[in-house]
Amino acid sequence: MGKGLGPIIEKLKHMNKDHLLIALLAGVLLLVIAIPTQDKNSTPSVPTTENTSGLTNTTKKDDLDVLQGRLVQTLSKVEGVGKVEVMLTQKSSKEKIVEKDSPVTDKNTEEKDSEGGIRSTMENVTGEETVYEKDENGNQVPYVVKELEPEIAGVLIVAEGGGDPVTVNNITEAVMSLFDIDAHKIKVMKMN
To answer: Where is this region: Disordered (predicted)?
Structure first.
């Protein structure tokens, strides 16, 4: 052993159990703080929740365009509808929900005062950390649990067959079942 460790060991021998326990806990705490939480070669941290509504309007518009196009394709194949145009409005855009880990750390500290009294302190620390996975390029990306589709607020349909009550009812029921929205949020009109 080196010459510098001798006095430290002597002090440790003369410490009572409480002081030794506190010193040990302090050492463990310093060790935990010093442990790196992420690989130095990893990419910068990614936001924990990706919400495409926070992206540019073109992404939101692209999502709507895809839904509108699919609805036009489907409705134009229905008997009596004829030529059709669709306009959708959204409450929310596509959202990705990422997996979270919630580590809990318990810390109990007991201190004795000079008069023999004991004070006990219990501390419970809860955190939240995003769970990451590696993509095909080896980059760390958040682990996506599920993707929520855009929530539709209203639908306007202009169709050649929009003047026929049976066709209007069929279109309304189809849109209600596709987008899980109420009938009063769907308007079907006759194309001129």
So the answer is: 39-60, 97-117
Q: What secondary structure does DSSP assign to 72-129, as a single string?
A: HHHHHTSTTT-SEEEEEEEEE--EEEEPEE--EEEEEEEEE-TTS-EEEEEEEEE--E
Residue pointed to by tokens 């009596």: 80
**Residue 73: which CATH number?**
3.30.300.30
Count the domains in the chain: 2
pLDDT tens, 104-121?
Answer: 777 888 888 888 788 888
Q: Which of 107, 132, 119, 113 is nearest to 43 (CA)?
A: 132
pLDDT along the chain (192 residues), means of 10: 64 72 74 62 39 40 82 92 91 75 78 82 80 84 78 92 93 92 94 90
Given its phi and psi angles, is residue 146 left (phi above 0), alpha (psi -120 to 50 degrees) or beta?
Answer: beta
The overall pTM is greater than 0.70? no
For position 56, what pLDDT does the model report?
35
The first and second tokens of residue 4, run together, are 């510098």
Structural domain containing residue 124: 97-142
